[in-house]
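Hey, can you fold this one?
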Amino acid sequence: MGLKDSWVSVKENMLFLSKEQVLNLFTKFEIIDFQETEKDGKTGLGKIKHWHIFDIIAKKK
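Sure. Predicted structure:
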């Protein structure tokens, strides 16, 4: 999840990364699709939160 996610200040056991940090994880990959999404929505428990997520499709070089 990204740094703008609403859980960043309350979930200390989760990892939150910047876009640059996420891209650095894929230096040995060809990125086929990269999408960054920010939106308000529900959790699995039905609570509202701000989501900041990255969806990546990549192929090893």
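The chain has a mean pLDDT of 96. Let me know if you want another pass with a different chain boundary.
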